[in-house]
Amino acid sequence: MERGKSGGCYLGSSAGGLYFALNIIFEATIIVWYLVSNIRSRDAVWVKKYVGNVGSTVLQCRKDFGLEGYHRIVLKTMVIHPTVPHIFYLGFLRKVISYDFEMDVAQLVYNFSGISPTESYKFFPYEWYQWPRRLL
């Protein structure tokens, strides 16, 4: 098995900042960088902001996520919360979870178990003014 292979990346904005996230596929680890300089600068400066082992966190509670029998997860999709940069929404196995990098907490948001494996869905960050700002 290959270790440390990149499984995708994400570039997005949250709370007025620009963030870049890299998914290390076989570990389900996400590394997030934040742009501290002006985006138009020739010498752009990116600073590592968060590192989270999502796979380890989720697999500690296999039953809660319906993952009995799974030994690893492969993240397929990720987006950043539009106003809370330490929260990402992640997709795998027709499930959507929220992951808080500061608290190392994962919560199941939605399970698309009723759709066929050939159907797909898209993520996009959106904030509704009545949603809570933080995970409880």
Q: What does this entry look like structurally?
A:
This protein is mainly β and 136 residues long. The chain has one domain. It is built from 1 helix and 8 strands. It has one helix spanning 54-59; strands spanning 6-14, 17-24, 29-35, 46-53, 77-80, 87-92, 95-100, 105-111. A 4-stranded antiparallel sheet has the order 1-2-3-4. Strands 5-6-7-8 form a 4-stranded antiparallel sheet. A hairpin with a 2-residue loop joins β1 and β2 (17-24). The model is unreliable at 1-6 (pLDDT under 50). Keywords: Membrane, Transmembrane, Transmembrane helix.
Quick summary:
This protein has one helix at 54-59, and strands at residues 6-14, 17-24, 29-35, 46-53, 77-80, 87-92, 95-100, 105-111.
Task: Give the overall average pLDDT.
Answer: 81
Strand content: 35-45%
Largest sheet: 4 strands, antiparallel
Shape summary: globular
Transmembrane segments: 16-36
Keywords: Membrane, Transmembrane, Transmembrane helix
